[in-house]
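Technical note accompanying the year-one report. For the benefit of new consortium partners, we illustrate the data format agreed upon in the data management plan: each record pairs a sequence with a structure-token string. No post-processing was applied to the example shown here.
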Amino acid sequence: MKGIQARFVGAELYFDDLERAKKFYVGTLGLEISDEQVGHHAKFDSGAGFVCLERKGSEPYPSKDKAVLFFEVPDLRAAIAAIGQDRLVQSESAWAVIHDPEGHNILLLERST
């Protein structure tokens, strides 16, 4: 199988207490919020990628450990074809979700030029 040229861009973690998690990432790690929807998520950008904290239950697809790894690919349709349509958990026009062997979410996004 030809490689899909996936590039890591960020991670999303789910929390029961989003406010408590947000205070930790801001107060303890000194990260600055780059995007926020109160009660839903808080996103922090860094040079190596982003970390997004999200309230449990707000995701449209299940994850074994409530974590998502985000990867960009140059061509989403080609990546889906290479991986196999049968391995998709869910997809929309701009993204697709597959599970790794342990059930963790891998979200593929088409790389913008």
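Partners are asked to follow this layout when depositing records. Strands lie at 7-15, 33-37, 41-46, 49-55, 67-73, 88-91, 95-99, 105-110.
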